[in-house]
Amino acid sequence: MPFNVAILGASGYTGAELVRIIATHPELRIVALSADRKAGMAMGDVFPHLRHLDLPQLVQTGEIDFSGIDLVFCALPHGLSQALVAQLPTHLKIVDLGADFRLRDPAEYEKWYGAPHVALDLQKEAVYGLTEFYRDDIKSARLVAGTGCNAATVQFALRPLIEAGVIDLDEIICDLKNGVSGAGRSLKENMLFAERSEDVAGYSQGGKHRHLSEFDQEFSAIAGRPVRIVFTPHLVPVNRGILATIYLKGDAQAVYDALAQRYADEPFVVVLPFGQLPAMSHVQGSNFCHIGVTADRISGRVLVVSTLDNLNKGSSGQAVQNANLMLGLDETTGLMLAPIFP
Ligand SMILES: NC(=O)C1=CN([C@@H]2O[C@H](COP(=O)(O)OP(=O)(O)OC[C@H]3O[C@@H](n4cnc5c(N)ncnc54)[C@H](OP(=O)(O)O)[C@@H]3O)[C@@H](O)[C@H]2O)C=CC1
Ligand SMILES: CC(=O)N[C@@H](CCC(=O)OP(=O)(O)O)C(=O)O
Question: InterPro entries from the entry (predicted)?
Fold first, then answer.
């Protein structure tokens, strides 16, 4: 018997990607889809690429009968899940894709997201959803908080290096490029084709991006002392994909060895042969993260490049990976599809 799942926010980009992934998942069945402005519409009318699927109609969340449902994916804008999850029946397992439950310190949440947290008990119970590092906790969790997509890309590169003690923790500089689907599907002037095509621009520079809160939390916990990285994201004219170029001080071979060893048995994190660097196009449409390492000509400088698909490994793929664990399924179920290329 497959597990019944609902997707809240199914008319958004991550919602549609969840549907695309789950459509061929042998153990999950979509029984409810919610939307806000698009409630009442057929999913195939909102997303013609999903027209061939037999899917429930989009409804308001309040219209869903959760009694026969096992797990809920929340793909809602920031700030909505906390109040909503608090009202849902407690038999449900929840995978939240937004930022509501990522930060363990409520003061940090308020600082970065501009409003007090309204479900502190749920926050305490939530497990951070970076599967490869929280696998055991996720297996027994009722509520999992998906990571930020930029945050996942950078953490896959840096966590093993901080753990292994092979880099200078005070010299971490990260330059990241990401695609426009990361901003969601709702209309925004600065996301218009005429403004994004043929352009590259940084944003949230100077330490203002909210994913810094996840870096601060996670990296400092691993190191056992405060770690602060320099992080500048840039928007590039691609639909999906994130590529982080990280400049470090350390021995390149030791950096490579730490990453290769840490991910040797991980099905979704691929460390390329030393000296090779990945491209966004190598992972788009998939749940894979590719990492490359090379030495700089300046002795003691190392370059690490990490790339993943923001809508897949950065959100919906990660969400399904976590749902698999929470439901006692093999972690890779439904997720081994190869990337789309070219
Ligand atoms: N896009 C990405 O790459 C990533 C996104 N995330 C997170 O995932 C979540 C979803 O992101 P994304 O799919 O991009 O967002 P979208 O803007 O594309 O979709 C948002 C969804 O939420 C619904 N919604 C909006 N307002 C309300 C409301 N008041 N009540 C109920 N439903 C509402 C929308 O419905 P309707 O359209 O019908 O109004 C839509 O289905 C966010 O928290 C985001 O931060 C995480 C990692 C990566
Ligand atoms: C292009 C673009 O705007 N990208 C978003 C990605 C955010 C994301 O998806 O992560 P959250 O779940 O934390 O929102 C950004 O950098 O803010």
Answer: AGPR, AGPR_dimerisation_dom, AGPR_type-1, NAD(P)-bd_dom_sf, Semialdehyde_DH_NAD-bd
Contact assessment for residue 293 and residue 274, using Cβ atoms and an 8 Å cutoff: yes
Which domains does the chain show, CATH number per domain?
3-147+313-326 (3.40.50.720), 150-309 (3.30.360.10)
Euclidean distance between CA atoms 216 and 64, whole angstroms: 37
**Cα torsion 72, 73, 77, 82: sign:** positive
User: Could you read off the pLDDT of 103-144 as tens digits, one per residue?
Assistant: 999 999 999 999 999 999 999 999 999 999 999 999 999 999
Cβ 81 under 6 angstroms from ligand 2? no
Q: What are 9-45's pLDDT values in tens digits?
A: 999 999 999 999 999 999 999 999 999 999 999 999 9
Please give the structure tokens belonging to residue 116.
Answer: 């007090």
Instruction: Select from 183, 207, 212, 209 the least CA-distant residue to 195.
Output: 183
DSSP 207: T
Q: How far is the CA of 317 from the centre of ligand 1 (A)?
A: 16
Alpha-carbon distance of 325 to 331, in angstroms, equals 6
The Å distance, Cα 237 to ligand 2 centre, comes to 15
Quick one: which of 184, 179, 297 has its CA closest to 240? 179
CA distances from 175 to 25, 204, 255, 265 (A): 35, 12, 18, 28
Residues that are catalytic: 149
- The three-point CA angle 226-231-236 to 5° equals 160
CA 121/CA 75 separation, integer angstroms:
21
| ipTM score | 0.98
Choosing from 205, 310, 312, 316 the residue with most ligand 2 atoms within 8 A of its CB, the one to mutate for a pocket test is 310
H or E element in which residue 270 lies:
strand 269-271
Q: Read off the tokens for 272.
A: 């390329």
Ligand 1 test: best mutation among 315, 320, 321, 322, most atoms within 8 Å of CB? Answer: 315
Model-wide pTM > 0.95 = yes
Give residue for tokens 């691929």: 270
Tokens describing residue 275: 């000296």
How far, in Å, from the CA of 78 to the mean position of ligand 1? 8
